[in-house]
Predict the structure.
Amino acid sequence: EVQLVQSGGGLVQPGGSLRLSCAASGFTFSSHWMSWVRQAPGKGLEWVANIKKDGSEKYYVDSVKGRFTVSRDNARNSLYLQMNSLRAEDTAIYYCARDIGVTRGVTGDDYWGQGTLVTVSS
Amino acid sequence: EIVMTQSPATLSVSPGERATLSCRASQSVGINLAWYQQKPGQAPRLLIYAASTRAPGVPARFSGSGSGTDFTLTVSSLQSEDFAVYYCQQYNNWPRTFGQGTKVEIK
């Protein structure tokens, strides 16, 4: 059974840092692009970042470039999001997700983690 | 950045009726478009990718169509479990972008 189990998150002050983790199981992790998507309270979905299967390519939404870093450890079947210089507008539920893997690039995300709430507030 | 615009914002439909949701891209995305369903308190669920291909396990009452800039998600006969928010997302260009969502509610 495919599972994505997230950890990390919580309350952090503006300017602070946080690291989110996503532990994958039930599939060959190194064969799939992975994503981070967030959802501010009561709002829609916002794509945050993607990382290629081998970690050689990374893409970010403009609002997090230079502050967030996506990484993966294929030996540990784990995905990470390091978030620095956090702002109030980064407050959201963060989801990790697996690309369906039907092409060499990204397509759609077919399995999602349970989500973790990040609150940036003083 | 490609802007995705969904309409209507809210769609009121009776169970058993057909629902038609629209998604428009600010520039061509080919067929590189996905549809997701999200229920309150849950993670999104992939319904459609490549504009018209159903993801595994998705019922046949869900269908997608379109290419270029105009796309449609149709639910042929709404079931109680289909009342939710639906999002389109383009993956033709970085950054990937979502539409603002269409809420399908019970009439």
